[in-house]
Amino acid sequence: MLSPRFLLLQSAVSLTTRSFCAGGVSKQGRAPDMIEVRNRLREIVGASTNWSDHQQAMAERLSLASMLAKSQNDLPVRRMKDSCLEVHLPLGSEPQLREKYLTFHNTVRFGRILEDLDSLAVLISYSHTYNEALKRSPLSIVTALVDKIDMRQHIIYPDCDIKFTGHVTWVGKTSIEAKMHMSQYRDGAYAPVLDATFVMVARDPENKRAAFVNPLKADGPEEEKLLQQGEANKSRRVELSTASLLKVAPTDEERKIVHSLFLNTLDSKTVSFRSRLLPPNSVWMEDAKLKGLEICHPQERNIFNRIFGGFLMRKAYELGWANACSFGGCRPNLVAVDDILFQKPVEIGSLLLLSSQVCYTQGKHIQVRVHSEVFDPLTRQHNTTNVFHFTFVSDRDVPNIVPQTYGESMLYLDGKRHFNQTVEH
């Protein structure tokens, strides 16, 4: 969740006349702290701070299934202003907050920002679906996909206040797109830092089946443009999924790239398929890995009794950054986060295995893929939960990454695709 003592505002609504609704403020009209926000979200779904009580509360959510809408037409139409939120992270005015966000290089831990963005996306989605007539929401809203995070500023200062803004920009029948912007106060004004697009999904109280969300209506040409962009984003995601290298063969141009990489590693003395030489200023892909392990404790759970998606993103980012730093030989800056797909929830008590791989390089840029899976030590089974894609930039040219196997070549091409999307965007 978001950090303590942040300011949470909802536009176009008289906040002081509303009790602490999803995305509102406290009854006293003051800025809610971390405990208040978490307690309210727990009230919305009927969760508890106590581990054993929390498990019981999750079981009791079964009774909320009867409150779900039978179709989207049964739900009132919402507007973008209904979910508009502004959140302040006072790193400058409240120095005690900095410890949680500070790196040893005196910059802000971007992994913490990922956690905050994930929490904000949930708050925005609950604001869109909020029903004053219900004490608890029957919806379980979870992160399905981080579509894109584009950095507009590489440096995030640890002693300057941060502001998050965002609202719903598109909805399907059971999914919600939330766009968020982050800016930082410096030299007398707020300057943009990043733009983020998250896709959330609504599920039933048990988080097992899809549930309908309120339709969205645009007010004016600007909002209509956002709706159209959301529809285009959906079509793009479907197209990319259909063209996945895990499903179809590479294009003719990509096949030529792979063959060229292969020819570039042949030993001119032996001219053998088996004899491979590493070209100058290059690194075998096999030698550009970094792995980690996390034991998933109850402390990292979300309000639905699963591991918090923001925690997963933070751990994946930090591992990916460390790999890029080691590979490039200097501290890299993040350019973009792209196409983070949450395939399966991570249960409490899981052994989470994280594997980062530098899969593509170009000039000063490093494309890193982080694969996460849960491992059951009793059955010895591995199940993929997430795949993360990060684009970093170094302050110097980095070695070329070179695949040796066909599988590594597919990773190379996939990394190149993600890098090209970032550059084109």
Descriptive notes:
- This protein has 425 residues and is of the alpha+beta class.
- Helix content is 28%, strand content 29%.
- It is built from 8 helices and 15 strands.
- An 11-stranded antiparallel β-sheet has the order 1-3-5-6-7-4-11-14-13-12-10. A two-stranded parallel sheet has the order 2-8.
- Helix 4 runs antiparallel to helix 7.
- The radius of gyration is 23 Å and the shape is globular.
- The N terminus is likely disordered.
Offer a few descriptive terms.
single chain, 425 residues, alpha+beta, 11-stranded antiparallel beta sheet, two-stranded parallel ribbon, 8 helices, 28% helix, 29% strand, disordered N terminus
How are the secondary structure elements laid out?
Elements (H helix, E strand, L loop, with lengths): L6 E4 L23 H12 L5 H10 L17 E2 L5 E5 L8 H4 L8 H20 L10 E12 L10 E10 L3 E12 L2 E15 L12 E2 L2 H23 L9 H12 L18 E3 L4 E7 L13 H20 L4 E10 L8 E12 L2 E12 L4 E13 L6 E3 L3 H19 L1
Parallel strand pairs: 2-8, 9-15
Antiparallel strand pairs: 1-3, 3-5, 4-7, 4-11, 5-6, 6-7, 10-12, 11-14, 12-13, 13-14
Helix pairs in contact: 4-7
